[in-house]
Protein 1
Amino acid sequence: MKQSAESGSRASFSGRIGYVLAVAGSAIGLGNIWRFPYLVAKYGGGIFLLIYLVLTLTFGYTMIVSETALGRMTKRGPSGAFQAFDHSPLGKLGGWINAVIPMLIVPYYSVIGGWVLKYLVACFADGIDTLAQDDYFSAFLADSPQVVLYFVLFSVLVFAVILAGVRRGIEQISKVVMPVMLVLAVIVAVYSCTRPGALAGIAYFLVPNFRNFSLMTFAAAMGQMFYSLSIAMGILYTYGSYLKSDVDIEKSTGELEFFDTGVAVLAGLMIIPSVFSFFGGDIGKLHAGPSLTFITLPAVFASMPGGTFAAATFFLLFLLAALTSAISLLETSVNTFEDGLHISRGKASLIMAVIMAAVGLSSSLGFGVWSSVKLLGMDILDFFDFLTNSVMMPIAALATCLLILRKVGFAAIEAEVGQSSPFRRRPLYRFCLKYLAPVCLVIILASSIASALGLITM
Ligand code: PHE
């Protein structure tokens, strides 16, 4: 980006590659390496992957193009873009919900960022063999002061970058980090996939088994798609508003999807075959949920020659990927307060610090001293993950679809996209926006709420 995002006058990306790298820095993060593998493992393996890919290429594509085009057209973030077309309370709500989601994600995102930091430190302090012990992760989570400490350290790093305004520097870093991480991920994935017994895991991950399908597979795949591609949380509006009109939106969307999905699939290949090869496909491990990555990866590294070095390098890159994403979340949130309340950057950061402390601390404690506290039957961190991904994001995405269908019109979006090249996937776009997206969103929202209230089990 020529200028940092925080400045009043609109800065712009230098071109498509700069834009794709910046968005990839935001999109590729914990969602790919931590969230995707555990969801695939838990919700049916290959069938989850298949649904995820189909949704990414249809629905996800439509949402990315829509949000980016709306941002570029209005030169505004989410609230401003909604306001530009719809002054009704519904329009306000649509913009507002898109803007609030990152504020609720960044605190618990930073808790998990803290876990990554802890693992990096522990590679040196405890050694990979200790890290690979079965109960290492659960013992860490139960130790609330430590979890809080690492959450605070990670958050301080994120705030430091935001306040120092070195966001541009971070983008430079992510240009180096991403390729190195990719190479390391390929090495680890090949290593995992060639362990004895790993084949069953590869098959579980890649071959769809329709008997594993449940409504939850669909809901989880859709939530993950939003999360991983940074859809339905205002980010792409904001990034779109910095995009020059000659950049091919369709092409950049395709590239973003390719990188993001590629890293997720690689992470799946690192982690799922290891569950089979190191833990005999233990169903308890497959359903381990948020802890999966932190249990299996150390086991893989511990068995590798030079494991401590490989693990430390990996967790460092993982940490940087998480940092670039967290920075984009916090940056957007701070911007929303600056613009919406007309306050200084410092004050806006202070408000976010309070939100971070409230949500992040309770999420941290939810695994330890507050483990008896359950919200709708979930741990506190899981609850915030569920609230944002399964409830708020479908509403936010629905608001974007309705805004286009009711106020903006296809013609305007098509003209915006068509500025740089003919809109190649126009029929697909229209179909998805008008039929596929609203129907899927309503089904997901209804089923998520019904399951949270215990009306159905998914
Ligand atoms: N997409 C990021 C990930 O996969 C998370 C994120 C969501 C980052 C929204 C920024 C905005 O980790």
Protein 2
Amino acid sequence: MNLLPLPALTDNYIWMLHDGRRAIVVDPGEAPPVMRVLQQLGLQLQSILVTHHHGDHVGGVDALREATGAAVYGPARERIPQPAVPLVQGDRVSALGLDFTVMDVPGHTAGHIAFFCAAVDGAPLLFCGDTLFSGGCGRLFEGTPAQMLKSLDSLAALPGNTRVCCTHEYTLANLRFARAVEPANVALIDYQGLCETLRADHLPTLPSSMALEREINPFLRVRVPAVAQSARVHEPQMTSEADAVAVLAALREWKNNFR
Ligand code: ZN
Ligand code: FE
């Protein structure tokens, strides 16, 4: 199975999985990058998976469906281009002979879902949309910090070797913030150096891995004392360092204003 991040729009990736004959894509914000690769590689688009309703994730759905006849799967609780198979927590999607499980991960949007497959060529794979980024998480447009914490906790509980396919190349900016939160995190310093090299060569920093994110992503580390202390220094209205929801809320607020 081949896994490709197709650059799209400003800083989106449209993830494609293909077996040399058939393909699926996740969150096509526009159609042309997908059509080009389908034609170049002679692939038939079988399915389109959608994580949430934002335009940079669904803008290419109608054109791709019309051009290829691909089936569309997406969150039951959001308005996305129709017809689409509506999905909720625990539903299964079968595509390319793979079995994806749907996870409800509200926070960025109210009905955001993620797709997890336990084994793609032997290792797990996660399509998490705008919920989890490498070194960061999505902005809370429609959900609460408590919802986002629960969603991130459910993702962080996936196996360490899970390949994490995020939909934006935000890694370097996220890591600058992560360094401000945890200046002494050695894994973070190493990873930042690696990502700077990748981006200088115009290569994606993704997919990440869940084991790495647990080591370096402040939004998965709200129960680490150094992270909670740092959050309180920058957001003094935060009352308790032991309250993981409050730490997440403070980190998100700090990040929103971080330059
Ligand atoms: Zn979004
Ligand atoms: Fe997005």
